[in-house]
User: Fold this.
Amino acid sequence: MVVIGRATLAPGWGQMAKRLIKARRSIRAPKKKNKKSNVARPFTPEAKLKRSIRAHFKALGFTKAQDGTLVLPGSGKEIVRKLHGSQRAERLDQSAAFLKRTSAKAILHFANGAEIDPTKIQLKLIRVESDTKNADLFRFATLTWSVPVSAGFGRRLRYLVWDEGHQRLVGVIALGDPVFNLSVRDNLIKWTAADRAKRLVGVLDAYVLGAVPPYNMLLCGKAVACLLRSREVFNDFKRFYGNTVGIISGKNKRTQLLAVTTTSSMGRSSVYNRLRLAEQLYMDPIGYTVGWGHFHITDRLFEEIRKYLRARRDRYASNHQFGDGPNWRLRAIRQALRLLEINESVLKHGIQREVFLCPFGPNALEILATGKGKLDISTLKTVHEISDLARDRWIVPRALRMPEFRAWKREAILELIEGVVPTLERPMSKAS
Assistant:
């Protein structure tokens, strides 16, 4: 006999009641969810974006290693150009209206090789301000680069390098805030994370640096690089950024330009390597990047990533105002990869770029390391002085050795923008 409270049940009812209670509990208990799979359903936003990312890497020629990293389709400058090809095509497409509006007038500022007298080349820096004709010419010139040019971020100093002797464009320079994490630079200076946060303000990065035809054929790329370390650039930095309030820190930062870094877009650079004028070292190689970044993520693909993040109301979809942290684009891509369960190793593209440092004084690295001392600027020269030295050291001798530059026609600039590299014939000598 089973007694429940005051009620008495017949024999056998107790066992039946226990079975009923157990059955009811099993009905109420939630079913265990299947283990989460990283395979997205075929028509979800996740699946569509995954397919886009994989198809893009495949189109670039990448293969995938077992550890998830990308394997380059080869090596050399042509591979680098190919990997940048789709991104460059996007930029040209975005610039179609701009080119239609500006080409006819912009082309007149480029030189024909036959009009150049190398002995009369005299370089000058013209600072570029936004929304001006000079800004249009700057943008037009950068479209000749085989590797797409960044717009830069944060502090910016942009210049046209002008030939006063012929009133023609020689090249362009753009300085901006440096990459926050750059191991070869930080190891050279011996920075801790705290040191870098305090003193990186004294460093800029030359994210655009070079000469245009026909001046590049006369080694004017070397002269343009030397202009980074000029009194004019040093003074411009002091004037515009010497006493500013940091947007991120909110603190007053009185500083001076101590060094400029730059990287070679094509791996190793013979133009910048141990660049010297009159015994003064202008550029020194300090190592290579590790081959990690997002250059192989095109603007079109990045917009797909942003659309996906916006749909999830993720803060990284629009967190791109200056002051929101360094390299927002990279952070947004990483966030999407995490959500898609794609290995972040796909950001290791394997293209190692040579890094160069241009110190503005013999004690610049010491000041960057310790935060103490007064910069010795006694070795800084003016643009005019650098121009004279470069003309005698590189430009005139090169013109005598390689007179092919005289065959250059400025109309070929438009072909260069389209990605066609014109060939030049060596002109016949008068004795022939």
